[in-house]
Structures are given as structure tokens and as C-alpha cells.
Automatic annotation (TrEMBL):
It is a multi-pass membrane protein. Residues 1-22 are annotated as: Disordered. The chain crosses the membrane at residues 60-85, 91-109, 121-143, 155-177, 189-213, 225-244, 285-304, 316-342, 349-376, 382-403, 410-431. Residues 91-246, 285-427 form the Sodium/calcium exchanger membrane region domain. GO terms for cellular component: plant-type vacuole membrane. The keyword Transmembrane applies. InterPro entries: CaH_exchang, CAX-like, NaCa_Exmemb, NCX_ion-bd_dom_sf. This is Vacuolar cation/proton exchanger.
């Protein structure tokens, strides 16, 4: 006891930096003496308070009320009411869009909470599965309704949004805040992701070239068969990438990312004098993942059904809605996270969020939709038409050149943002003749 009290007195006189393991062990020691040390046990008291919050009502507050973005949650039920009461597709689409935005962010949060219990390896697989859950659900609903062009354009828009807008905003804000120094990131991991993105471009480019050069052996059928075969190969490649990243080269890639994550957690703990612990339990995280995914599925149905009506009532091209507006909703969580970590000079995590998400969509979600369409009997293929394919190809090249030095600054971010504005303007004036 005397030794513990001596430590507490030292802590009250001066601040001593702690590592994550030291802080955790001391928190458990102080927990036993909390009733005796009073104000000296602020660290332990905050930890106990957090533990008291991890109850069903506490998790409801944390998931549905605490975050400011949850102010948009009422727009979801309002969109359903408008669908049945007025039938105005423009407002139904807008309110569904607003209602899905906080759900996408909360899905990412629940996945992060679950990763506390599963560890980094399973946590990486969970992020691969749920990180783009919103895009996958919207795409499957659109595919079920035969809106194949909407599926292709929305997934293409997600890649463009992550690579240009999300990464650009992160580089810009990080460069402004840390303008005194050059921000650096792991160039080796960026090169691997760039290679996967170029492989995805190759898989998407060949069916389009085959179609527009009229060199198919069986018109229409060869293009679809090539797309399905390439999709299976891309899924195998993405599975191999996950194994390579999380198992085979775990010490090379994983340790670096985990080190930055741990460093970020330690800095948060030091700033707030609190132990970094999960806000909700493992079963609560699983339950909220199921509830949020179900609610996203419901709203996605109304959103997809209102797209055509919104395009007609607002006089906005379907391509602009699919490529620009829909992906902004699905990337809400990635956008906020990437900027936050760039502001903390954690660019490896920023790249993992922005470029990693683009890799997931191009190498997993798009081939997965082709395979799902195969089982549904829908002719979903990898032919994204000439204009969209060229846009993707140029975007991947631009971002690859930006990442080749392994450094970041606000000017690179500004160039990526301006490039995204050019892409958005292109799709606003683009007339899709394939509908």
C-alpha cells in the first residue's frame, strides 16, 4: 500500500508519460484502491465509469445518440413515410441518402469496437467485410432490380471518391496542419495497393476493349464469360493479398500499421487521462452490426427505387447521381477517419483507409457483384463502358504517381481534390447511351 500511495503522490505532482501496457496495469491496481485514494484515482474512476456505461442502455446511447452525425438518423424513417404518403421520388431519395449517411459511419464504428476483441488479424478481415457494407448492400439491391448500370457506376464512384476526394482532403488538411515538416508514409505498402488497383483496371479494361473493338468470338457472351472468369481470379488475388498482409508478411505490413494504431491510441489516452478500452461489449458490437446492416438494407431498397425518379425530377443525369452522390454517402466514415488520422500525422492509417477501401471495392466488391449476378441470372459484367474505364485508368495512374515518393503535402491534396472536381463535372455532362 505504501508503495502504491507513493506512486500516486508522484503522479499528482508531475506528469509522467506511460506506455499503453503500463497504463493498463496501473489502472487495474488503482481499481482495487479506488474508494481510498479519492481524487488521486482519476484514471481508475474514468475506467470504472466506462465499464458502467457498457450496458444495453449505455450502448444505445453510444451508438445512436452520442455521435453528432446521428442527428441525421430521423431522415431514414421520414423517407419511408414520404414514399408511402407523397410518392415524391426526389425527396425520398434525398432523405434516404441522408438517413444512410450516419448508418455507414456507425457500421465502421461498430466494426472497430469488435476488432478490440478479435485482434488485428480477424479485425482486418472484419474491416474488409464491413468497411464497404453500405456499397455492397446498395449494389445488391440495384442488381436485384436489374439496374446493372447503377451498380457499376456507384462502385466506380466509390473508387474515385476514395482515391481522389478522401485521400485529397486528408493530404490537404494534414499538410496544412503539419506544414513545417514533410509527412511520410510506408511506400512499400502503397506500392502493393497501387499494383492491385492496376490489376483491377486490367480486369475491367479487357472486357471493354473486347466489346468496343468488336473482336468477340461470340458477341455479348464472350464478354460476359471473360468478366466472370476474371472476377473469380480477382477474388483469389484479393484473398491472397489478405493472407499476405495479415499472415505471411504480418511483421512487415501489420506491425507498422499496428504500431501507428497503438501510437494513436496512446496519444489519445495521454491527452484524456483515460485507458483505451472498448466502449461496448463484444456481443453488443455483433448485435449492432446486425441491426445497422438490416436498417441499411431497408433504406437501400427505398433509395434504389427512387433514383430514376430523382434523376427526372431534379433534371440530373443518372451517371452523376450514381458516380458522385451515392459514393459520398458510403464513404462518409472513411472520409472522416482519413482526415482525422492525417491531422494526427498517421498517414499510414490514412492510406489504409482511403487506398485500402478502393482496393477492397475494385478487387472484392466488384467481382463479388459479378458472381452474385451470375447466380441471380443477371448479366453483370466488368464492361464499365469506355468513358468510365478511361476515368478509372487515369485516376489510378494519377494517384500512383502521387504516392511513389512516399511523402505528402497540402499541394498534392489540392491537386487530388481538383482532379475529383473535374471528374464530377465530366459525369454531370455525361450522357449514358447504354441505358
Amino acid at each position: 500500500m505504501g508503495h502504491v500511495e507513493e506512486k500516486i503522490d508522484l503522479e499528482s505532482d508531475e506528469e509522467i508519460p506511460f506506455s499503453s501496457s503500463q497504463t493498463t496495469s496501473k489502472a487495474h491496481t488503482f481499481d482495487f484502491e479506488a474508494s481510498h485514494v479519492g481524487s488521486h484515482a482519476k484514471l481508475c474512476t474514468s475506467w470504472v465509469f466506462k465499464q458502467m456505461q457498457i450496458r444495453p442502455f449505455g450502448s444505445i446511447y453510444i451508438i445512436l445518440i452520442k455521435a453528432k452525425i446521428n442527428m441525421l438518423l430521423p431522415f431514414g424513417p421520414l423517407a419511408i413515410l414520404l414514399h408511402y404518403l407523397t410518392g415524391k421520388h426526389g425527396w425520398v431519395f434525398l432523405f434516404s441518402l441522408l438517413g444512410i449517411t450516419p448508418l455507414a459511419e456507425r457500421l465502421g464504428y461498430a466494426t472497430e469496437q469488435l476488432a478490440f476483441y478479435t485482434g488485428p488479424t480477424v479485425g482486418g478481415l472484419l474491416n474488409a467485410t464491413f468497411g464497404n457494407a453500405t456499397e455492397m448492400i446498395i449494389s445488391i439491391y440495384a442488381l436485384k432490380n436489374g439496374m446493372i448500370r447503377v451498380v457499376k457506376q456507384s462502385l466506380l464512384g466509390s473508387i474515385l471518391s476514395n482515391m481522389l476526394l478522401v485521400l485529397g482532403c486528408a493530404f490537404f488538411t494534414g499538410g496544412i496542419i503539419h506544414h513545417q515538416k514533410v509527412q511520410r508514409f510506408n511506400k512499400a505498402a502503397a506500392v502493393v495497393n497501387s499494383g492491385l488497383l492496376l490489376m483491377a483496371v486490367m480486369g475491367i479494361l479487357f472486357p471493354a476493349v473486347l466489346h468496343y473493338t468488336h473482336t468477340e468470338k461470340h458477341y455479348g457472351k464472350s464478354e460476359l464469360s471473360l468478366s466472370r472468369f476474371s472476377s473469380c481470379i480477382m477474388l483469389v488475388a484479393y484473398g491472397s493479398y489478405l493472407f499476405f498482409q495479415l499472415r505471411s508478411q504480418h511483421n512487415f505490413y501489420g506491425s507498422l500499421d499496428e504500431g501507428h494504431v497503438e501510437e494513436a491510441r496512446n496519444s489519445v489516452a495521454e491527452d484524456s487521462d483515460e485507458v483505451e478500452v472498448p466502449d461496448i461489449t463484444q456481443w453488443e458490437a455483433l448485435g449492432w452490426l446486425a441491426i445497422l446492416t438490416l436498417w441499411v438494407s431497408v433504406l437501400s431498397g427505398y433509395l434504389v427505387n427512387a433514383i430514376q425518379g430523382a434523376s427526372d425530377s431534379w433534371n440530373i443525369p443518372m451517371a452523376f447521381i450514381s458516380v458522385i452522390l451515392l459514393p459520398i454517402v458510403g464513404n462518409a466514415a472513411e472520409h472522416a477517419s482519413a482526415i482525422m488520422f492525417a491531422m494526427k500525422d498517421k498517414l499510414d492509417i490514412t492510406l489504409g483507409v482511403a487506398i485500402g477501401s478502393s482496393t477492397q471495392i475494385s478487387m472484392f466488391v466488384i467481382p463479388f457483384c459479378v458472381v452474385v449476378g451470375w447466380f441471380m441470372g443477371k448479366p453483370m459484367d466488368l464492361n464499365f463502358q469506355l468513358f468510365e474505364t478511361a476515368t478509372l485508368f487515369i485516376t489510378v495512374l494519377v494517384v500512383a504517381f502521387m504516392l511513389q515518393e512516399g511523402t505528402s503535402n497540402y499541394f498534392k491534396g489540392l491537386m487530388l481534390i481538383l482532379s475529383y472536381l473535374i471528374v464530377a463535372a465530366s459525369f454531370f455532362v455525361h450522357v449514358d447511351l447504354s441505358n
